Amino acid sequence: MPSSKSSIVVFGEINADIIARVQTWPKPGEECLAPSLELHCGGVAANCAIALTRWRVRPTLIAQVGVDPIGQAVLEKLQTQGLDTSQVHTTKHAMTGLLYINVTPNGQRTFFGSRGANRTVRLQSSDLVAVERASAAILMGYSFLDPHPAKAALRILTEVRSRHGWIALDPGMEPSQKIPDKILRIAKKVDVLFVSQEEASALTGESNAHKAFHKLTKAGATNVVMKLGKRGCLITENGEPREVPPFNVRAIDSTGAGDAFNAAFLQAKLHHWPTTEAAITANAAGAAATQVIGAGEQAPTTRDIARVLRGRRLRAPWDIIRRSVLSRIR
Description:
By secondary structure, the chain is α/β, with parallel strands linked by helices. Helix content is 39%, strand content 21%. It has a domain at 43-62 and 122-329: Ribokinase (UDP-N-acetylmuramoyl-L-alanine:D-glutamate ligase, 3-Layer(aba) Sandwich), CATH 3.40.1190. It has helices spanning 44-53, 69-80, 125-132, 147-162, 173-178, 180-187, 197-204, 209-218, 257-270, 275-289, 302-310, 318-329; strands at 8-11, 15-21, 37-42, 60-66, 88-91, 97-103, 109-114, 136-140, 166-170, 192-196, 224-227, 233-237, 240-244. The strands form two sheets. It has a nine-stranded mixed sheet with strand order 5-4-1-8-9-10-11-12-13, with helices on both faces. It has a four-stranded mixed sheet with strand order 3-2-6-7. Helix 1 (44-53) crosses helix 9, helix 7 (197-204) crosses helix 8 (209-218) and helix 11 (302-310) runs antiparallel to helix 12 (318-329).
């Protein structure tokens, strides 16, 4: 197992996720009643930070919630997951980010909500002290939708790179659609670009995964990691895309799968694993995350991920890599 010494800053969103499992998607004007509602900690940054703790990595989460009962509940959930919340700030000028997530039987989810307090987060002096100690950082594209978090994200990028650290970026769907030019400019400055096929299509105008991958690399993204869901992922190898096979499982909710994928890949990079091992691990982590409802505190453990890795042999040469990863995390 990796040690807990690696230092990474996670900057972005914390939300409260209210999740409902429904049988069918309602027509306009219809009622859509779920048997129950679940409250989970959410937001891409919080999800990623929690998932990193499963790998015994101690991330510094820099984010913001409102001064409200929802924010307090989210902070308590983060703390129970072993996260240091000293860099999670509060504001009385906005409520905690809140999302309602409708989950249908095929595991697909639809989001409704508002970013709330995430829109006004700024760096404080204590945050900069933490950034100075970091060897890496992951930024979220949603931060670039609003002036204050965008300024903070760019400051983190500059500070970490000035100390020869590395940066990852997860653009997110809405930023990829609304501010593609800005996201592409930032992508040139980072070391790892996590992107779904849908996000890549929004950024490049290409629906084909390989064509979109080539356009991203041509635009200056040096290390593209494209998440393809049930089809695995694409990674950069010698400047070209390489397909990494998936782990097929019975998915019940895809919420947070991409964040678990990111965390698994990031911890592998922090510990200098080969990119192929990082990608296999990330695919297994993403698959494991789809087997539970919700993200956040539901993030898969290394035991869950190992179970997925053991559950399916892969074609050559990937099975050798699968076995190598299993030997690392047992």
